[in-house]
Prior knowledge:
The chain is mainly alpha-helical.
Amino acid sequence: MSDNSQYQKGYRAGRKKGAEDAAKAARMTDAEFFDAAMLQALPTAMKVQGWTFGEEKITSGTQRTKLAALWAADALKHRKTYGPRK
């Protein structure tokens, strides 16, 4: 198989997966979407260094979970405003 046909095969598979993921997200309830967004944001929130809520540094797991929840809530707000990704 040539490099070009391998590329095309991978490109088609990626496009198909993207379309399937978008369709799945479009069927999610708000609660399911929030949970999925929270789980996606949590690893990043757990790794932040030097971030603050106002004057308070983010150091505890509770604060990091709150940060992930804020990001998930923002993603849900964006979804409600603009609709699911097409």
